[in-house]
Amino acid sequence: MTPLGRSVNIPGAVYYDVAALGSTAIRVAGRQSVAHYLSSRREEPTPAMRMGTYVHAAVLEPARFEREYVVATTPQCVGTRRPCRKPVPAGGEHCRAHGGAEEAEAWKIAWLATHPLVEGEKKGEHAARLRAVVKEIPEAKCPVMTETECQNRSIPGANTCGIHGGHNTAAAWLASLPAGTQVIASADREVVIACAEGVWAGLKRCGLAGAVRAAEHEVSYSARAILTDEPPGYRLTCEPGVEGLLVRGRVDIDLGGGRALADLKGTQLRHLMTPKSWAWHVIQEGLHVQAALYVGLAKAATGHDAGWRWICHEQEAPYSVRVYDADPGLLDLGHLAVAEGLRRWARYRETGNPWAGWPTTAETVWSPLKEE
Questions:
Q1: Residue 187 in contact with residue 203, Cβ under 8 Å?
Q2: Is residue 51 located within the same domain as residue 88?
Q3: What are phi and psi of 125, to 5 degrees?
Q4: Tell me: the pLDDT tens digits for 283-328?
């Protein structure tokens, strides 16, 4: 179970407690429904999610990145011996290129010698009997091992493809790795390193490199959420024994023991270009919901009224960096959204109905071109 309060170096298996609600669960429930969140959960991360995890580790915890993310290359298979696999003529044991024609002819001669014409049998009938026997011989492929350059790529962790035993070699290599090690493709690692270097260059230009380097990273917070009738509609507490929804958050950058929080966010240039474009992106993606929840968690755990900052970086070269602070009014909107999401989760936990809050009555629609 995720411990209440503020924690550093919590293992992922402990942090991602299925009983605790994260910002995504709360945001999706508040905007759509609990049913939508339950149907959208992924067992495996997408390639984009993996890259985001890699970049976070490379920027914020480079030593852990080097230690836990092992490169697996996939060069061309070095295996050169493979079965010929060409068709074998009936009666032979090898393909024609490896003497199969001569073997088939020898088999035919031997058959004729042991199956002569019987009394009253015509030559045509005898030949038909031979053809019938030939048809009954099962098809076969030439077993001769040939020396040829394999065109396959090797399996990660091995220097051969599956045909040449790569699966067993790769499995043995993976089993030999320390617990917690993850395998990353060499091409992905190159992209991640380039991005991390670009982000740190941007942080230096913004005068933040020293502060980010000195801050604590991947700090976990957890608290109980209690619904109230007073704005914003909920409060968070870390007091033991209090009943309520368990909520959690993991902050990328924690400066001053919960006094200032920052999120490293990879995005596109069109989103981070200006404060206005970023504000639209924040509202559209619900990033203010996460910010409000995390600020609330820090307040419950430490008593500090933390500020919230987004450190945005391009996901492609030249990896520009822009820094935006959340306006109090934006966080207030986020708190209202958190309250709505928590209310829907509470109804779901009480009734088992994941559709709480989803419209069930007919509504009137009008032309979006209609003048207000």
A1: no
A2: no
A3: -70, -35
A4: 999 999 999 999 999 999 999 999 999 999 999 999 999 999 999 9
